[in-house]
Amino acid sequence: MKSVIEPWGVYIPFIYGAIAYWALGALQIVIGGNLHPLFMMSGAYLFYVGMMFRLFAPARKYMVGHLVTLVLLLSLIPVLIGAGMGVAFMIMMWAIGDVMNYGSKFPINYLVLVSSLAGTVSWYVFSFFHDFYVLEVPLLLYVLGVNVGIFSATLGARPLLGKKQIPLLLTILASYFFPSLINLITVVYPFLLIRGRTLRVGINLTTLSALLNVGAIVFSGIFGLFEGGLYPLHSFTVGIMTVLLMSCSTYSLARYNYGWEWLIPLLLVVDLITFTGIPWVLALLLYLYLVRNALGLYSLKNGISSRFISQEGSSKHQRQQGMK
User: Fold this and answer.
1) Counting beta carbons within 10 angstroms of the beta carbon of residue 191, is it exposed (0 to 12), middle (13 to 18) or buried (19 or more)?
2) What average pLDDT does the chain have?
3) How far apart are CA 93 and CA 66, in angstroms?
């Protein structure tokens, strides 16, 4: 007899941890500390791993592994964060094995799966060389992999899954040795999704949000290619990573509010250009407002926004009234 899968809101402690670290990272700028990049990047990994677990391994049977990963990612010690990413990879493999044992067949999202293994490698390399660029590679693997589904659903873009991802996967891994590839890949990526396909673009806020997110990462990729100094790192973290993390998580956690998500990529592009940080804070506050129903105690217990449940109950009531 197969066990019942019981979900929980695994992403919630990770997101709160990310917000706390991003706040501490901002404080480092104010007080003149030197831990700003470490706090910001650690926060990004917390956010990414929490959403990865939510999408691919949200069951309570993995809870011990979830919590071990959380503690390790919160440590701020690179080798321990690397170990946490290794635990995350093992949980993902466990979850995929469980799904297959249940008889499900699906194209594997290699970009997402390999991202956690690459995260282990990147944090161990970072512990020796302290080069933040190596930490971009796993994040790029994840955000491009997970947003395949978002852009397919909102724009009718061509799904890029399974073996079709391998050329892109290898190119992203090559950016370990050629960092400029990171920006170049984000410029080319949208064209991989629409090649030989007519996009399904209607005039509504949902497609506007998706289009502006695509436009933001293309602009940011070009911006990072032609600017020197810290701008390539800044263009990735603000205009590519944050744009796509907030896009996919808003769609996943609060699809009913995705139509208002279009403001976020605009704010992040402004922050990319001005380098002030204020538009980034406004984008984060707007994001938290859009997903607020998915961050409470109900969602922590059940793994789903209370708004989804209330909408389902309302629709059921309307159908019952229509049958009378």
Assistant:
1) exposed
2) 90
3) 13
- Kindly tell me if the per-residue pLDDT of 220 is higher than 50: yes
Q: What is the mean pLDDT of residues 81-103?
A: 93
Residue 281 in contact with residue 322, Cβ under 8 Å?
no
d(CA 10, CA 299): 9
| DSSP letters for 252-307 | HH-GGGGGGTTHHHHHHHHHHHH--SHHHHHHHHHHHHHTGGGSSHHHHHHSS-HH
Q: What is the pTM of this model?
A: 0.93
Q: Which pair of tokens denotes residue 248?
A: 């996919």
Give the integer Cα–Cα distance in Å for 229 and 252. Answer: 35
Q: Which of 26-35, 263-272, 278-287 has the lowest mean pLDDT?
A: 26-35
- Token pair belonging to 48: 């990414």
User: Would you say 209 and 107 are in contact if contact means Cβ atoms under 8 Å apart?
Assistant: no
Cα 193 to Cα 152: distance, rounded to the nearest angstrom: 8
The identity of residue 23, as a single letter, is A
Percentages helix, strand, coil for the chain (3-state, rounded to 5) are 80, 0, 20
Helix axes 278-290, 11-31, angle to 10 degrees: 160
Q: Note whether 3 and 59 are within 8 A (CB).
A: no
Whether 199 shows a pLDDT value over 50: the answer reads yes
How far is it, in rounded angstroms, from Cα 284 to Cα 163? 35
The residue-averaged pLDDT of 296-323 equals 68
Classify residue 44 as left (phi > 0), alpha (psi -120 to 50) or beta: alpha
Measured between alpha carbons, how far is 100 from 94 in angstroms, rounded to an integer?
Answer: 10
How is residue 122 annotated by DSSP? H
**What is residue 14's predicted lDDT score, i.e. its pLDDT?**
98
Q: How far apart are CA 159 and CA 192, in angstroms?
A: 10
**Measured distance CA(41)–CA(132) in Å, rounded:** 8
Distance CA 145, CA 23 (A): 27
